[in-house]
Structure formats: C-alpha cells, structure tokens
Amino acid sequence: MPTCVECGAPVRTLYTQYSKDNIRLTSCEACNEFADKYIEHDFVIIFIDMLLHKPQVYRHLLLNRISQTREGIEPNVQRFAILLILFEVYIKWFRLETYYADHDTAFIQRPLYFQYFYILALCIFEFITFHLAVRCAVRWHSLHYRLNYVSMALIISSFGKMLLILMVIWDYKQLEYSWLVSIIVLASNVEALSGKN
Description:
This protein is mostly helical. The protein folds into two domains: 15-65, no CATH class; 75-195, no CATH class. It is 56% helix and 5% strand. It has eight helices and two strands, in the order ββαααααααα. A two-stranded antiparallel sheet has the order 1-2. A hairpin with a 2-residue loop joins strand 1 and strand 2. Helix 3 packs across helix 5 (112-140) and helix 6 (147-156) runs antiparallel to helix 8. Belongs to the ARV1 family. One of its GO terms (biological process) is sphingolipid metabolic process. The chain crosses the membrane at residues 80-96, 116-138, 150-170. It is a multi-pass membrane protein.
C-alpha cells in the first residue's frame, strides 16, 4: 500500500491521472500534505534531498517507488549494490597503488588479476559483513522491519560512496577526506533506516 512520505500514514493512492501529462497529487488525510511530492520531481532533486538527509525522500524510494515484494531485493537495487562494490574495489585499489608507490612490496609485484580479485573478495566480504551486522542489530532490537527492506535501505543510502570519485578525478594524491564521506554514508544509512517510522 502506498505511504505518505510526510507522516508515514498509508494512503489509497499517490496521484490521480486524468490524461497522459495531467496528474493530480493526492493529499494525505492524516497530515493534509501531498502524499508523495517526489512523483513529480526529477532525479537531481531526489539526489539533492538524499544529500540533505530528508526522511521523505527515503520513504519515497523505499516505500513508494520500489516494488514491495515480501522477499528478496529488487533487481535495480541489486545492480546498484554491484556498482557500489565495484566502485569500492576501484577506490581501494587506487589507495593501495598510491600508498605502495613508494614502497617495494610483494602485493604490488603480484599480477593485476590477483590484485583485483583479492580486493574484490575483500570488498564483498566487507559488504556482506556490514549488512549482516546491521540486520542482526535490527533483529536484536526487535524492530519491525522486513530484512529485505533493511538491505535495500542500506544499499540505496550508501550512494555517498560515489562522491569519492571526485577525489580521484581531481587527482588527489591521498584520499584525505574519505573519512568525511564515510560519515555522510553512515548518516544516510541511519536516516534511511529511521525513515520508515
């Protein structure tokens, strides 16, 4: 059932479509606001609101935009998770290359495919461990979330990891501010998980 992004109350419908280009947003009976204003917004506005940690945007994405199947993760979210893992591999590889550039180590002298698969395995292990730890914490605290919702919320709210590409593009020798991006991602994760309530 669709959900109001402002108060979290269930609504019958998010909009009424009169013609192809003519829709009218539904007002929520509980809070008298538009049930989901993000239906009319483009992706840039949604991305900016995600950066601003607005809970309404996470409700829109997780409760109204993604199909609510009982089990599993939606295919688009799965593809985004794979993209995040591959991006993390690239960032870790870049860090290792810059760190070990001045050092003569056995890791750098290994073949490229060995380096890539080693870092890929490490990133997959980190990804799975983080998700399992959060899911166990949610279950331990007896919060009433579906576990696939927890995973999708964590994946979508980890979009901030892609901000590190700016540091690579602008040729920073060290990723000094990557800790700041990690804090942004963690805050986004918390906001996405609290956005359901």
